[in-house]
Design a protein that fits this description.
At1g16640 B3 domain, single chain, alpha+beta
């Protein structure tokens, strides 16, 4: 069984990200100082309002920042967003946040599980260990077929 952990628990690192408007929606910009908490060019789990979804962490075109360009229902949509619906834009619309403003990204399990919340809000996450590398590789292969 997974443990439940609050966003204000000492084991959870919180990173302040900036919402940036794009031609197709919104993306999260992670400052270079916090990039070590995010696996670049990997798909991670990202919790929005209790829903565990998927996002790809990308290197910024310039500088050392990283970004999360969208949040999707399945890992394959995070890798190739042309077919999936970006849930990040809807989350922004539903919360008291704006483009150009800050949001909090909670690092629940580094390189695996993250959470997104508006400043001043708290969240509770189902913290669990990531699958071992061989199981993750098999799942990715099946998912890509």
């Amino acid at each position: 069984m997974a443990d439940r952990v609050s966003s204000d628990h000492p084991s959870v690192q919180t990173v302040r990200a900036t919402l940036t408007e794009t031609a197709t929606g919104v993306r999260l910009e992670i400052p270079a100082a916090d990039r070590e908490a995010f696996p670049v060019d990997e798909v991670v789990r990202l919790v929005l309002d209790g829903d565990e979804l998927f996002a790809r962490v990308e290197r910024a075109l310039t500088g050392d920042d990283v970004s999360i360009p969208g949040v999707y229902d399945a890992p394959r949509f995070a890798r190739d967003p042309r077919e999936g619906e970006d849930r990040l834009s809807a989350w922004v619309d539903d919360h008291d946040v704006r483009t150009g403003g800050s949001v909090h990204v909670d690092v629940v399990e580094p390189e695996f599980l993250y959470g997104l919340r508006a400043p001043g809000e708290t969240a509770v996450y189902e913290a669990r260990e990531p699958p071992n590398d061989s199981l993750a590789s098999i799942a990715e292969d099946v998912e890509d077929q």
